[in-house]
Amino acid sequence: MRFAITIAALLVLVGCGSAPAQHPRDAGGPLLPEQAAYDVTFYDLNLRVQPEAQRIDGALTVHAAVTAPLEQFVLNLDRDLRVRAVSLLEEGVRSPLDVERRAGGNQLWIALPRTYGVGESIRLRVTYGGTPREAPDPPWDGGFTWSETPGGAPWIATSCQTIGADVWWPVKDHPSDEPDSMAIHVTVPDSLVVAANGRLRGTAQPANGLRTYRWFASTPINAYGVALNIAPYATIDTTYASTAGTDVPVSFFVLPNEEADARRVLPDLLDHVRFLEETLRPYPFAADKYGIARTPFLGMEHQTIIAHGAPLGNTNSLGYDAGFDALHFHELAHEWFGNFVTVRDWKDFWVHEGFATYLEALYAEARQGDSAYAAVTDYFRRQITNRQPIARRDAASVQQMYGRDIYFKGAMVLHTLRTLMGDDAFFAFLRRAAGAGTDQPIHVTTDDVVRIAEEEAGRDLDWFFDTYLYQAALPRLVTERAGDRLTLRWTTSAEASFAMPVDVRVDGALRRVAMEAGRATLTVPVGASVTIDPQRHVLRARP
């Protein structure tokens, strides 16, 4: 069994936050007009997984509402998987339909028998199969992972955030479109258990030696959050009393040799849920479950079935000693930021990773105090590379945005925003950004996040977000001291006005200095000890 290296170490290997070259398997980017012309309402995925042959065979039925005249129905499917047939589930229609593979074979262009108009619906079935791409370095470079448990049984999992869900099933692979619900039916040898998204509706035995697991996700779900986890799992089932006053089903899928350890750590993991509910909003997928599956790679935020591959009880799985299971906490935080609140385009990817990462620091602060918060944010600060902006104005793919800065710089932007807004306004902003008061998952952009922050702060914050999100270089604080006068002046790479206030300690007395128009002058006694930003509340270039 091989545990993946930490996020921090991995990001060093992939270029320390620099934009990777366009990958032939990459998710997102500008949405094709043919895909923008329909909205997926339901996916029904039926799959047989054959561990010994390391192959999959199945069918995907997609239900879609037409939003613009449509002649070609375009889905994404990895070129390693063969399409056997595409059928339109409509009376009197010739089947199978003609299919052309484009974009290096990763797109299915399906010729419809007529032009479908706005308001019509379409149901298509794609029958496919083959040997799916094996993940070279999951979860960062993903696909199927075919591994073994310590006892030699099959241990299989999917991961596909950076290369797209189409690496293993046909899908409209863009974050802007999620089905209202999804059925996932998976058939495996009956010695194995399938842990997937949503709630288990039952099992069936289609043939001797086989078992089918019928999962159903009752809420919208992002494509990369759909996941299979297959092993001879032991299942720890319980309930969690939500702050909303309901009992949430909990399922922890563990390897049989880990069951005792899993039961020991589960209360700590449930405390993570409690903190996030109290800080943000009630757990958003209570109708389905809060699920964790042990995986042969480090982790991923698969909706309602978090992938967890670090040793149970490990407090150092993300590159720093958090004092708690930061891997689980981070992936769980994505149930709020990533799964419930999902970016409409990957250009705003920092919203997923920056918020989830910053919440680690908040949990450390809540459970261990101010010094723990400072230690975690100091660690985040040291990881920042400033190789490229962490947000864009135009559409982008996952791999164009992926890098360590969407995690760590994103988190430190929020750390600095908290200083600017004050705790009351900041935590109100955090709750609203997490979709408090909303029942159904939502799509957001960076502009939405900025608007909420401005409303809670009661002031314009474009200067703040433009500098931190859309410029690679950090603002620099220039200080000059002459006699009894101390001058502070912000400079930015765009020479924009930057008005971030700064704490200054003079002979032990702390004061906050307003930086209107990006500068300020104050009188300090000659020879006094002066420390700028002593608590490191502001993200800035190193002196």
Describe what is shown at a glance.
With 543 residues, this protein is α+β, with helices and mostly antiparallel strands. Helices cover 23% and strands 31% of the residues.
What does the model show?
The chain has 543 residues and is an alpha+beta fold. Among the domains are: 20-271 and 285-314, tricorn interacting facor f3 domain (Immunoglobulin-like); 476-532. The model is unreliable at 1-22 (pLDDT under 50). The strands form seven sheets. The chain has a seven-stranded mixed beta sheet. A five-stranded mixed beta sheet has the order 15-16-17-19-18, covered by helices on one side. Strands 8-9-14-11 form a four-stranded antiparallel beta sheet, with no helix packed on it. Helix 5 (350-368) packs across helix 8 and helix 9 (423-433) packs antiparallel against helix 10. It has eleven helices and 27 strands.
